[in-house]
Structures are given as structure tokens and as C-alpha cells.
Amino acid sequence: MTDGDPICPLCLRPIPRGVPQSLHHLIPKLKGGKGGPTVLLHHICHKEIHATLSEAELARVYNTPDILRAHPRLATFAAWVAKRPPDFMSKVPKRRRG
């Protein structure tokens, strides 16, 4: 880990080189976000976002890092995962909406 590592906008942990990571389209590609803004996330954080919210919810409401962090389930997840090392991976259930 170096001082120049990007910071995950969901859990606010550094994303060191070689750690599982992925780009998240703030507006889903299927909802018109192709070519739109993206953010780099830990892969586990990205999976949690998509397990929690539908593409329509992401496009309509949860389309900024601040709003994503404010979602109750994602806020709880971010607080939990922030206590783990940056390379932590765990299985994320398919859908946990509701």
C-alpha cells in the first residue's frame, strides 16, 4: 500500500495495486450510463452495491458516492468492511433488497 493508492468511495479504504477492484458506472450502462462517470471500487464493495440496489434505483436515486454511502444497508456494510484489510474478499449473496 502506498500513499498514492486510490480510495474506495464506498468503504473509504485504500485500493492497493493487485487488490480485486472494479469500475462502477454511477448510472448503469443499461439505464443510459454508457460512457458516463465511473468510480473505482473494491470488488466486494461493487458486488454489495449491485446485491442491494436495482439498476433502476441506481440510475434514479443512488448515482453518487455520497448517496450510495447514505443508503442504510450500504452504510452498515461499509462500516463492517472498513475493519477488514483492503484485499479482503467474501461471498456476497445475490440479492438482499427489502
What is the structure about, briefly put?
This protein has 98 residues and is of the alpha+beta class. 33% of the residues lie in helices and 10% in strands.
Question: Which labels suit this protein?
Answer:
98 residues; alpha+beta; two-stranded antiparallel ribbon; 33% helix; globular
Strand content: 5-15%
Q: What's the average pLDDT? A: 90
How can the largest sheet be summarized? 2 strands, antiparallel
Using only C-alpha atoms, the radius of gyration works out to 13 Å
Give the termini separation: 36 Å
Helix-strand sequence: EEHHHH
Any low-confidence stretches, pLDDT <50, length ≥5? none
Helix content: 25-40%
What is the number of beta strands?
Answer: 2
3D shape = globular
Strand order of the largest sheet: 1-2
Number of domains: 1
Q: What oligomeric state do the depicted chains represent?
A: single chain
Helices, by number, come to: 4
Q: Which structural category do the helix and sheet elements fall into? A: alpha+beta
Protein name: HNH endonuclease
Organism: Loktanella fryxellensis
